Amino acid sequence: MHNKKLNSIMIVGLGSIGRRHLKNVLALGYRNVSGVEPNKKNATAVQEEFSISVYNSLQFGLKQAKPDAVFICSPTNFHILNAMAALRAGSHIFIEKPLSVNLKGVDNLIHLAKQKKKIAMVACNYLFHHGFQKLQKILAQKIYGKPLFCRVTVSYYLPTARKNSNYKNLYAARKNQGGGVVLDSGSHTVNYLQNLFGKIKKSEIITSKLHSLGIQSEEAAVLVLEHANGILSTISLDYLSKKPIHRLEVVTDRGLLILDIKDDFLVFKDGKNKKVIYKGNGGANQMFLDELKYFFHSLKERKKPLQDLEEAKEILKILV
Known about the structure:
Blueprint: E1 9-12, H1 16-27, E2 33-36, H2 40-50, E3 53-55, H3 58-65, E4 69-72, H4 79-88, E5 92-95, H5 106-115, E6 120-122, H6 130-141, E7 147-157, H7 181-197, E8 200-207, E9 220-227, E10 232-238, E11 240-252, E12 256-260, E13 265-269, E14 274-279, H8 285-301, H9 309-319
Parallel strand pairs: 1-2, 1-4, 2-3, 4-5, 5-6, 7-10
Antiparallel strand pairs: 7-11, 8-9, 9-10, 11-12, 12-13, 13-14
Helix pairs in contact: 1-8, 4-5, 7-9
């Protein structure tokens, strides 16, 4: 089931995504797992629920646990710092997206990972979504025509995004922590669009100047991407919609492919007929599980992951 050579795994930052990875790592059968969480209340809750060691300092945790692999799930502004520490301690790293809040220190991180000969993967969970993988195959084989244009909508309501939390304290609300829709949602969408349509040669971003939610980061934005093959993609992002939306629409010379990630289906429409190509069960956790399996397999085979540091840097360049 899992790679026996991985003796120890550490998860840095036990917020919602850190806990998800923790649950999934345990579900995959790994037992020697520890955490790092400076927030005492969070740390205690995780210790009680999962019976794992949780350290309040990364340096101390790295010395104690000597992890083979470290998951960096701390606030975005700490990613580079935490990842450097993990590499120096001799660990492979998995970094949550986005890679960082700006490009500062990114080249040093790339250099260190090469020097230490360690695998460094940046999260790209949507590449493991079954509907997305189906769409990717269809587009590659031009089954429903040649792709000409793509539009993406990612929309949710920040004030109700996290239960029992004041949304103004979430990292999404704070620009300096990597919040704002451009970095928050854009790091996913630009990554998967590049996987669908190839390299991006030109990009434009317009952010909303309205602050109806009273947060310091931008609450809405539109991105326009021109891929090297001439295809245009538009991405509409916002924290404002009370009805969550995550949808890709690909216009082909034969009709329209719609992948609804929120409602988990893929259809093709040509004006007369509608064909359901894929219908999932809406279980969002499967793509995260598959992403972890893939990461552990990359470690075992010592192979370059789907999104490495260089690719994440290119995406960050577009977004910042």
